[in-house]
Structures are given as structure tokens and as C-alpha cells.
Design brief:
It contains six helices and five strands, in the order αβαβαβαββαα. With 160 residues, it is α+β, with helices and mostly antiparallel strands. Strand 4 and strand 5 form a beta hairpin.
Length: 160
């Protein structure tokens, strides 16, 4: 049994993590095995995203007053994934879910100061990274120029 001082220390640590992050994802990790969890933690760390497991009561106390709205239901064994990037925690969990089926479930989270449900957090997770969005934008800008060059080349070839 944990001492009251230890419980308070855990809650303060959770509060500090929540306050320092841009977004938080709540995950049900029932059924994950140690090797899979090790891979998950390593992949998350590589993206500057962190993973914490605690009792649901500790999470509920730490989350009290941290966001607007109603806390999503947290069934099963719950972990918190958080980081300095707004989208990276959700995206990394979503990518891990695609590879390791039926191991992790997104339960919801905190995004832009509001509690969001599982469906909204999954939509957020599907937003591509900044680099991918930049590449798509450049491609959209470059596409008309390429097509124009092809047309000019066709005209030049037809006159020859």
C-alpha cells in the first residue's frame, strides 16, 4: 500500500506532465506485452513523446481543472501519452495501433485545453506531420509549373 506522501508525489508528477504538454492522449493498454511496450516507449521517446501509467484515481485527481468539458470515460488499464507537440502523441499511438492490432485503444484526451473523446482524438491522430504537409503544399504549388513546362515542350516538339 502506498503512503499518502507517495500518492501526492505521483499526482504532482502527473500534474506537472499535463501542464508541460501541448496535448495528452488517454490510452487503454490492456493486453500489451512487455516487448511491445518497450518498442512503444522507445518509438515515443524518439519523437519526444512520453508514456506514463498510473491508477485511474490518480489521473482523475491530476486532471481536475486542467481542461474544459467532461473527462472521457477511462475504462480498463489507462496510460497517458503526452508531449510538447500538439499532434505527435496521438499520431504515434495511432501509428502503433496500425502495426499492433488490438493492443492499444485511444480513449480520448486533452487537445487545445479541452477534453476530447476517442473519435476526435483519432481524427487528430490522422493529421500528417508538418514535414508531410509542407511537401504536399510544395507539390501543389509546383504542379501547375510542371504542367506548363510539359505543354511548352509538346508545342516545341510539334513545331519541329
Amino acid at each position: 500500500m502506498l503512503l499518502k506522501s507517495k500518492k501526492e508525489e505521483i499526482i504532482k508528477d502527473l500534474e506537472k506532465s499535463i501542464d508541460s504538454s501541448k496535448s495528452v492522449v488517454f490510452v487503454n493498454f490492456h493486453g500489451i506485452h512487455t516487448p511491445e511496450e518497450t518498442v512503444l516507449r522507445r518509438d515515443l521517446r524518439n519523437q519526444n513523446v512520453f508514456y506514463k501509467v498510473a491508477r485511474k484515481t490518480f489521473f482523475k485527481r491530476a486532471l481536475n481543472g486542467k481542461a474544459k468539458g467532461e473527462l472521457p470515460e477511462l475504462p480498463g488499464e489507462v496510460a497517458m501519452v503526452y508531449g510538447a507537440d500538439q499532434i505527435a502523441p496521438a499520431r504515434e499511438i495511432y501509428n502503433f495501433q496500425k502495426i499492433h492490432k488490438n493492443v492499444l485503444n485511444i480513449l480520448g484526451g486533452i487537445f487545445e485545453g479541452k477534453f476530447v473523446n476517442s473519435a476526435e482524438m483519432t481524427e487528430i491522430a490522422m493529421i500528417p506531420s508538418r514535414e508531410v504537409l509542407y511537401a504536399k503544399f510544395v507539390n501543389v504549388i509546383n504542379s501547375p509549373i510542371q504542367k506548363f513546362a510539359v505543354v511548352l515542350d509538346q508545342i516545341a516538339n510539334s513545331k519541329s
